Every structure is written in structure tokens, then in C-alpha cells.
Amino acid sequence: MNHTTPPPQSSEDQEDRSPKFEWDFHISAVVSSSVGTISDTLGVIEVNSLGTLFATGGIARKIRVYTLNGNPTCQINICTPAKLSSLKWKPLSAGKTMGSADYDGVITEYDLETQMPVFERDEHSGRRIWSMDYSHGSVVGASGSDDGTMQIWDPRHDGLKSVGKVHFGAPVCCVEFSPFGGALIAVGCADRKAYVYDVRNMVNPVAILDGHQRTVSYTRFVDDRTVVTSGTDGCLKMWNIEDHDHSLIRTYRGHTNQRRFVGLSIWRNQGLIGCGSESNQVFVYDKRWGEPIWVHGFEPEGGTRSEHGFVSSICWSQVGDDECTLVGGGSNGVVKIFSGKRKTLTSIS
């Protein structure tokens, strides 16, 4: 794998580039799918805002919703007409509605109580949708597709055309509205760049993040000024989107990612970054240091690492301060739940 020369280190990095291992992690639960093969690869995991439930979707054409606390049990099992690439809990629905995006280019909302679809739209001409998200400040949603567009749509108007569209000329791999409200949306593309737009003015981006050598597969907000991007060049990058130059703050390396979607999630409370790897491992980075602070193999306990397996989806629960929960999914359909706890000052020293 080829890397460009790392950018100059910030003063923070120059002072101390060694990660401080402030967290202890351990496996708290394992959930095995009924299939347990590549046909059940998990493409997405989403934890609800209360940190009590998580949903999975992927190749098996099922939305499964599990309890997160204690011994995870499957509460909902919805069969879908196509393979799933993205799931999102709909804001302001009291956890009763979930949106999905699929390989057939369709956005569907499901009522989780009746387990029936209540909204459907197909504005990507049947091309695969890689990502969808909901705005936290309004009712609109967004989707990005192989057709090279990112579209903004309003689920209150079934069958109407999108209320906003941007053409990129390359597949759109990720869309994420700022979880802090406001009007920003981050977009990752196969043209090796990420873009940040203000949805009130979709003509010109407010930031272009140009630094990856291959496809940008994920974009995630750390806070209202900072975005982390993931590329199939095997690195993560953190950017300041507020300054004039949209400067690169830090590059994170350690995981392996050349051709797969391996997941990216930020625990915003404490600035921890989780991602998967084609080495079949989970990686956790602290946003302050470019080296991982924790790595865990995803092979069966007591087993050997698979040459073909990979970690395909990652999601933090946003609940907690000194304790955290990370949910990871593998290419074999297995889910592992990790619990983390901040070390005491005595154990750190």
C-alpha cells in the first residue's frame, strides 16, 4: 500500500506523539447470526439515541433490532426486498421509525411497531445507494448513490422529486448531517475528496477536503468544526472545516482498508474514533494521537484469524462519559459488543 508523506505534525503531536492508554476495553457480549457466513455480512450497525437498542442490516436482507444492555436479544426482524447498505433511526419519531437504503436504489422508512414500510422513494434510477441520513434540525433526509448524486428529500412528500441535488460525477459513498443541528452535511466521494455543504445553498461547498489517495468511504462529524474522513487508502484524516484553508489536523494509521467498507464511528463525548479493518480487527483511536490506542481481533474466541474475514461495521453508543459501548459487526454476520472504562489516575501512572 502506498502512502503519501505524512503532513507536518502539529505542536500537540510534536510535544508527545505517543498514545496514552487511558481506557480499558473488554467484550461484554457476542451475537451470532443464524447464517454465520459471508452471505450475512453486516453492512451497517446503528445504536439508538438512548443507547438501549441497536439495529443491523446487510447482505441477508434483514433489519434486526436487538437490546443493547445485558444479554442482547433480537426484538424485531424485518425482511427487506433488497440488500441493505444503510440504516438510520429517524429523529423525533420516539424510536418508532427507521430509515433504510438498499442496493436497488430505494429509500424506505419502516414503522418498527407494525414492521411495515410507511414511506418509499426511488430517485436514484435504480442505482445502489451507499448511505442515507436524517437532518437533526429538520425533517429532511439525504442519500448518496452510485449514480454520482447526493439528494436531499422530504419524507412528508411521497413520490415528489428531491428538494436538492448535487452532481459529483463519481459515486457518493457517504452522507452525514451534522449531529449538532445546523445546516451542514458532509459527503464522501469516489473522486478521493470529501465535501461539506450548507443545505441552504447547495451550489458551492463550504469546504473541500482533499488529501486521500483513494475513495473517501466515510465522513463523520467530531464536533461542529471538525470532520473525520476514512479512505480506502488505509487511513483516517481529521480536518478543521472552520478555518479558511480547511486544514488537515491529523492522519490516523494502523488499520487495513483498501477495497471494503469497514465502518467508522465517533464517540463524541470523549473523542474516540472506532473503525474496522480488512485484517479482521477493530481499531480504536483517540483523536489526539495518530496511532491506535486499542486493537482487537474479530476471530472466534480461541480461534485463528480468517484470511478472508473483515470487520464491516462499527457504531458507538453516544451515552456515557467515563464508560462507553462500541458495537462491531463482521463479514460473517457476528456482532461483538465492547465495553470501555476510563482508567483511574493510579492505573494510568
Automatic annotation (TrEMBL):
Domain of life per record: Eukaryota
Entry keyword Repeat = yes
Q: Which Gene3D superfamilies match?
A: YVTN repeat-like/Quinoprotein amine dehydrogenase
Q: Quote the SUPFAM superfamilies the UniProt record gives.
A: WD40 repeat-like
- Give me any GO biological process, just one: response to UV-B
Instruction: Provide this UniProt record's keywords sorted from A to Z.
Output: Repeat, WD repeat
State the InterPro entries in the record.
RUP1/2 (IPR044616), WD40/YVTN_repeat-like_dom_sf (IPR015943), WD40_repeat_CS (IPR019775), WD40_repeat_dom_sf (IPR036322), WD40_rpt (IPR001680)
Q: Which SMART domains match?
A: WD40
User: Sorted alphabetically, which PROSITE patterns does this protein's record hold?
Assistant: WD_REPEATS_1 (PS00678), WD_REPEATS_2 (PS50082), WD_REPEATS_REGION (PS50294)
The UniProt entry annotates WD repeats at 209-249
Return the PANTHER family for the record.
Answer: WD REPEAT-CONTAINING PROTEIN RUP1
What is the name listed in the Swiss-Prot or TrEMBL entry for this protein? Answer: Putative WD40/YVTN repeat-like-containing domain-containing protein
Q: Which organism is it from?
A: Helianthus annuus
